[in-house]
Design brief:
15 strands, 3 domains, Pseudouridine synthase, Structural Genomics Hypothetical 15.5 Kd Protein In mrcA-pckA Intergenic Region, Chain A, alpha+beta, about 300 residues, single chain
Amino acid sequence: MENEIILTATEAVRCDKYISECIDTVSRSYIKKLFDMGEITVNGTPKSASYKLRAGDVIRFNIPQAEEIDAVEEDIPLDIVYEDGELLVINKERGMVVHPAPGNSTGTLVNAVLYHCKGNLSGINGKMRPGIVHRIDKDTTGLLVVAKTNDAHMFLSDQLSDRSLSREYYALVHGNIKEDNGRVDAPIARSENDRKKMTVTQKHSREAITDYFVEERFGIYTLVRCKLKTGRTHQIRVHMKHIGHPIVGDKTYGVKKEEFNLPGQLLHAGKIGFIHPITKEKVQFTAPLPEDFEKVLTFLRGRLSQ
């Protein structure tokens, strides 16, 4: 079901700004999505987010109601870094899928969180992705935040949209990156040749920016810290491949012959920071590298010292 919202403009301002100021139960990211879909009309005509209103303009749009959760609760251990009544910060293990999907309905982080929270999760993202504000890949380890309430979900989603929710990753990549830091500013879209892959392209793509900083060098490998400026699917993995330094262990974007027998890419979401939806204070959380990642680094340090 949907709730129709009707607003009458009282001042000459941007349309998106006016809506967000009038309706505090709708996130800015969701408002942007509605504009992109042409679902917001002014005087009966779809307008852009930047459209400047005039007093008396009538704005109409619909807000879908949050769906009931449809995933199954499962008693699966979780590494919970932080929890309160609004959210959880979880250190996800390698191999765990974030949310159920066709052909993969159980054993996911959502199933585990539903059991832990006794079903109390935000329903904004639908029946199969309750509480999920953002995702990390199945074989990527590390931190992600999960919303328990709809208000917290919208507050966190807005930070994700305006890029104030900060995320830092550690990755071991092939090759020696010569510069100490750099930026990859290369748009990403789904590959036309393989729909399971993403690729750098100008065609039907979205802006993607990754900053990277060299942490340690091992001759034929480099440990980097990456800061996401945007959050595209497989972004760091695709960008590292794009600059000629694919991530070690990456089965999709990596090299064919690997020195190490790894179950997945050495990519770890080690730090996350955001404004808490209730206290409005900046909070930051960190998670150590997983054991298999540390073992590879220890081996490389030992080999380098010989």
